[in-house]
Design brief:
Layout (H helix, E strand, L loop, with lengths): L21 H7 L10
Length: about 40
């Protein structure tokens, strides 16, 4: 397709961050603006 974009993944099998690496988690993981728990 040759399109550039952003991919969002969520669900039970997706982690909430890196264990023990809070700075890297904050850099790579962003809150879901569509989730009730943000």
């Amino acid at each position: 397709m040759g399109a550039t974009g952003v991919m969002w993944a969520g669900g039970r099998g997706v982690s909430r961050g890196y264990i023990g690496l809070d700075e890297k988690t904050a850099e790579r993981y962003k809150p879901d603006p569509f989730a009730n728990d943000g």
